[in-house]
Amino acid sequence: MSASDDSTQQPPLKTARLAMDQQVATKERAPDQQQQQTIEEEDESDSMDGDDDDEQMEEGGQPSGRQGGKRSRGKFRRPRNHVNPFSPFHQRPVDLEDRWPEKVFEKPSLPLHVDLGSAYGHFCMAMAEKYPSHNYLGVEIRTKVVEHAISQRDKAGQRNAHFIGCNVNVNLDRILTDIEAFSPPSPHPLPPSIATHPKCTTNDKTAVEQPAAGARGGVECVTIQFPDPHFKKRHHKRRMVNQQLVDIIGRHLVVGGRLILQSDIFEVAVEMRQLFDAHPAFVDTHAADDWQGQPDQNPLGVATEREKGRIANNEPVYRAVFYRVPYDEPGHDAATGGGREAEGDNWGEGD
Ligand SMILES: C[S@@+](CC[C@H](N)C(=O)[O-])C[C@H]1O[C@@H](n2cnc3c(N)ncnc32)[C@H](O)[C@@H]1O
C-alpha cells in the first residue's frame, strides 16, 4: 500500500492530528530549511506541466504576487517555473567582473565542466565534491535560483563550483571565451572507436594521439540535462539547443571532450541529438537512432534532480554521449579545435 493510500485509511481525528503535527514541524523548521523546502518543492514542479504558456511577469519585472500560478509564501518568493528567454530582460549580456574566473574558482586553470540549465545546482555541487580535480560551472537563466545555488555552494565551502545567472543562448560564447584565458584548451585522447570514425577527417592525428603535456584545461565536458521542452509549436524556438548553441559548444569543447545530453521527452532528445550529429565536430558514441545502446544511467555517476525524479517513477530517460573530434576546415586549428570565425560560420547549411 502506498503512503497516500495509507493516509486515506486514517480516521478523521488522526488525520487532522497528523496535519497539525506537520504544520508545527514546518513552523519549527529553521527559516533556511523552510526556504530550502519551498525551493525543492518548486524544483520538482519545474516546467514539465506540459503548458509553458509562460507570459507571466519576468524576474526583474513588476512583482506579480503570484508565481507559477501559486501564491508565494513567506519572505522567499518562489522563482518562476518558466521564463521567456526572448524577453528583453533575458536577452541582456551578462554582467561579469573583470577576470571573474580567477575570483570564483580557487584554481581557474583546472579543466572545466559546464552544465547548461543547472537549476538549483545540486548536480554541479555533487560533481565538484566528487571530482576536486575539475571546476564546475552551472549556467541557469533564473537568477533567483542561481542566488540560492551560490548560497548553498558557499555554505558547502566549495571553491571549484560556481553558477552564473543568464541566458546561455545569449552569453555562452562570452563565458567560455573568458574561461579559456585562464584554462587554455588542451586536447584529450579519443577512444579508438571515435578516433577512427569517418567524421575524424583531420590529417593531424597528433591531436588524437598526443594530448598536450602537463595539466589539461579548457572546456572538457558540457552537459545539457532535461532542458525545458517548450511543447507548443510556437514556443519551439525557445528551446535551449539550437544550431547556434551547437556551434558555440563545437568551438569551445576541447578535442576529446564530451558532450552529454539527457531528456525525458523523446522528441526533445531526438532533436538535440540530430543537431549535434549534423555538426562535423561531434561524433555520437552510438548511431543517432540507437536508443537501445544508450547509457542506462548517467555516465558521470551523479544524477540530476529531474533525473532522480524520473528514475524514482520508473520513467524513461533518453541519453546520448558525443565526443568532440578534430576535423579539417579552412581557418580551423584541428589540434586545438579553435580558430574558426564566429561570424559566417554556416556549417551544414545547404551542404
Ligand atoms: C527542466 S529544468 C532541468 C534542471 C536540471 N538540469 C535537472 O536536470 O534537474 C531546465 C532548466 O533549464 C533552465 N533554462 C531554460 N532555458 C535556459 C536558458 N536559455 N539559459 C539558461 N538556463 C535555461 C530552466 O530555468 C531550468 O532550471
How does this structure look, described?
The protein is an alpha/beta fold and 351 residues long. It has a domain at 90-324: Vaccinia Virus protein VP39 (Rossmann fold, 3-Layer(aba) Sandwich), CATH 3.40.50. Helices cover 34% and strands 14% of the residues. It has twelve helices and nine strands. The chain has helices at 3-8, 12-28, 31-45, 100-104, 122-130, 143-156, 168-182, 192-195, 206-209, 243-252, 266-277, 305-312, and strands at 66-67, 70-71, 112-116, 135-140, 161-165, 219-225, 253-263, 282-284, 318-324. A seven-stranded mixed sheet has the order 5-4-3-6-7-9-8, sandwiched between helices. It has a two-stranded antiparallel ribbon with strand order 1-2. Helix 7 packs parallel to helix 10 (243-252). The longest helix has 17 residues, at 12-28. It is globular. The termini are far apart. S-adenosylmethionine (SAM) binds next to strand 4, helix 7 and helix 12.
